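Check out one such.
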Amino acid sequence: MENRIMEEAIKLLKLKGVKFTMNELATELSVSKRTLYEHFPSKNHLINKIVDCFLAEIKVKEEKIALDTTLSLIEKIKLLLVCVPAEGEAMDARLLLELKKYHYDQWEKVQLFLKEEWNIITHLLEQAKDEGILKDISIPLFIEIYIGAFNNAYTSLSEHNLTLGELLQQIVEILMNGIKA
């Protein structure tokens, strides 16, 4: 039942953002609110579990990408930089603004993940530099630019209705290939 609740909550997140209510969730599942609260003591706990699952899924996807011998180093780096959970790829990037406003602890968890989970990408960037595939750039600076672009883009570009996947694709395209035609 917990998985069913989470799956339906993710659908509501896509449709309504984090403002969906537990009543709406119960209605969609054809269960009582009491049933929801037996599995999740609050909406905040539910959102927290979804964020935890999304972050865990990103880690699994990153490991698969890093180990994929059919991909070049650059392909791996690009895929890792746009890596989001399958369910999160199509979500509106504005959802992060709502997360910050209504579920700040979970937003902070996402920010911490964004700042700390760079081991695989850093290793691949170093390898690409060593092999002469990438310029000799400062990897910490590259990471800070990426994080800054991501955080500023979903905040300031909210009127453009980009999905999280589209936003990350555009950021990575500019960072990796520049803006020249």
